[in-house]
Amino acid sequence: MISCLSAFVLILFASALPVQAAPIRAPNSDNPDSGEITLTQLEAILNGTICSPNNSQFLDECRTAAQALPFVNKAFSDYNITTVGEKAALLSLMAFESEGFQFNVNHFPSPGTPGQGTRNLMEFPFVYQYALSIPFLSTQILALAPSSSDSASASVSISPTTKDAILALVLNDGLSFASAMWFYTQSGTTKTGCLEIPGMVQDLQAQTEKGWENYITQCVGTTVTEGRRQSYLQTLDILNGV
Asked: Is it the case that residue 226 has pLDDT exceeding 90?
């Protein structure tokens, strides 16, 4: 079991190091690079999130658009996600799950689900796989839990305390804001994320609702709701300058 002091030291160490470089996806000539997200765009997507004692239930987890922007843009660059349609899908998911970047850990229903977090609120099996994929964390992760623990069934045997200790190692801004991008491009046993779902990437790049629905149901693995749909459509409009 990792001690509180050891966990603290590991968190500080992880936060000081850069995110791993990701394999480059082949560029799509039909969908040129959309450029970086601007501060004005991200502020609009987050509906002006304010981090203050009067506005934030989890102040230490809250991030404004200005604080999040460099990490969001770096993550899109690192994982070679360049099109408006794909960025809108991922950003809207992150904003929806974290209520505008107001929290970084699952808190609801209280006390929350052990080991679930990052800005897209990944469940623990994916948090474990993500942490294990980071070169400077892998040895520490394996010391906490065996490599077979990236499967949903094996993770049941890991204690809530250990799950939270592993999650804590990927909650720094550099890693937490990149988790949705990693999940989309590199998660799973094949390490190809959701990129092999038939037609999904092409439909997302074409900015179709069908592509987004497939992303939500087949990639993220949750249900399409009107709230999620409106978040995506609003984000898409903002990134398109509508």
From this structure: yes
In single-letter form, the type of residue at position 65 comes to A
Q: Two tokens at 241? A: 């300058």
- pLDDT > 80? residue 234: yes
Q: What angle do CA 66, 70, 76 make, to 5 degrees?
A: 130
Q: What is the pLDDT of residue 83?
A: 98
Q: Which two tokens mark 84?
A: 């408006």
d(CA 79, CA 186): 9
Written as six digits, the tokens of 131 are 């942490």
pLDDT tens for residues 76-126?
999 999 999 999 999 999 999 999 999 999 999 999 999 999 999 999 999
Contact between 155 and 122 under an 8 Å Cβ cutoff? The reply is no
What mean pLDDT is predicted for residues 136-161? 79
Radius of gyration of the chain (CA): 17
Which sign does the torsion angle of CA 108, 45, 104, 209 carry?
positive
3-state secondary structure of 174: helix
CA angle 9, 102, 100 (to 5 degrees): 130
| Sequence-ordered alpha helix ranges (H) in 79-156 | 84-97, 124-133, 138-144
Domain positions in the chain are 34-101+115-239
Strand partners, 105: 117
- Answer yes or no: are the C-beta atoms of 167 and 115 closer than 8 Å: yes
> Quick check: 45 and 95 in contact, CB under 8 A?
yes
DSSP 175-207: HHTTHHHHHHHH-TTTT-TTTTSTTHHHHHHTT
Enter the pTM of the model: 0.87
